[in-house]
Write a structure and sequence with these properties.
Blueprint: E1 4-9, H1 13-22, E2 29-35, H2 39-42, E3 49-51, H3 54-59, E4 65-68, H4 74-84, E5 88-91, H5 99-107, E6 117-119, H6 127-137, E7 144-151, H7 158-161, H8 183-193, E8 198-205, E9 214-222, E10 228-234, E11 242-248, E12 251-256, E13 259-265, H9 269-275, E14 285-289, H10 298-312, H11 323-339, E15 343-344, H12 349-361
Parallel strand pairs: 1-2, 1-4, 2-3, 4-5, 5-6, 7-10
Antiparallel strand pairs: 7-11, 8-9, 8-15, 9-10, 11-12, 12-13, 13-14
Amino acid sequence: MEAVRIGVVGLGNMGTGHIRESFPGISRLQLTAVCDDDAARLAKYPDVAAFVSFEEMIASGLIDAVLIATPHYSHVDLGVTALEAGLHVLVEKPIAVHKEDAEKLLAAHVGREHLKFAAMFNQRTDGLYRKVRELVRGGDLGEIRRTNWIITNWFRSAAYYGSGGWRATWGGEGGGVLLNQCPHNLDLYQWIFGPPTAIRAFCQFGKFHEIEVEDAVTAYFEHANGATGVFVTSTGEFPGTNRLEIAGDRGKLVVEDGKITFIRTTQGVQEFSDTTASSFPSMDTWRCEIPYTGGGHQHKKIVENFVAAILDGDDLLAPASEGIHSVEMANAMIYSSLRGETVHLPLDGAAYTGLLDQLVSGELDAKTA
């Protein structure tokens, strides 16, 4: 195979965006088919094969891989169908709405590991977060003690939520900011620190918009080593903030406005606390801005890597198998908030699916629960 023939299913904002912005310039990628149930959208691509039926696109023999950019709930069935047909798959985030569906999707890849299966976690390509991960995983901060991530720069308007009937509904999207915008941040969080072991969250449903799902969240995380974290997000604040603070035994990282500031202690904090004779001690610190390279090229880089994985055997930057962690964290936060309890991970997937079914049917109203 000299080039990857790709089909795109879903020609909404993301599918169209990938075709216009992510694909051009990738020399070994050929768009050969598109699929959507809207004839007007299909008509915009007269130079490639157009299909209303996903099954017909797969059976056409015109594609080697598929990019799934449809509403959330359909990711699983489309992904399973594509994998079973022997196609490489790149799926938009989230890989599924809930944990049980994510497990179903990943199970379809078992025994088909020769097929490349990736998720569109484009922020993993950002040099800033790659450097933060390197510092944390490399031990430069010592043992991590606390994190605090405020991500309120996901502002969305009423017009945005009104742009599609599936948006911001339990039945169409499966959630709000946690399932639409924050899969990126939740993926980065677990990619850098590992998944938490317990979550207590407080979600506010339709606080800033006339929607039924969460648009403001404050959550508390616990990790196996005793580290804690606070995670705050919203689509209703402007101007928003994106500030990640990481406290470790050897100092603190502050990530904000495209900068990584490292305030490093001269010795381990715990050792200093245990050995100093002073009751009100202080120690010297070094303060420096950590350099990093590369904006990451975001979506284009994920697509380039997907092509290179298929043709050259490169490792995937964002394997779909890791996408279950952000889904589980989002599910756990909604479940914790509605049940008023701390959720210990791994999450009981069946219990969450049952809760979601109640929300979709209207049996349970998140705003009054």
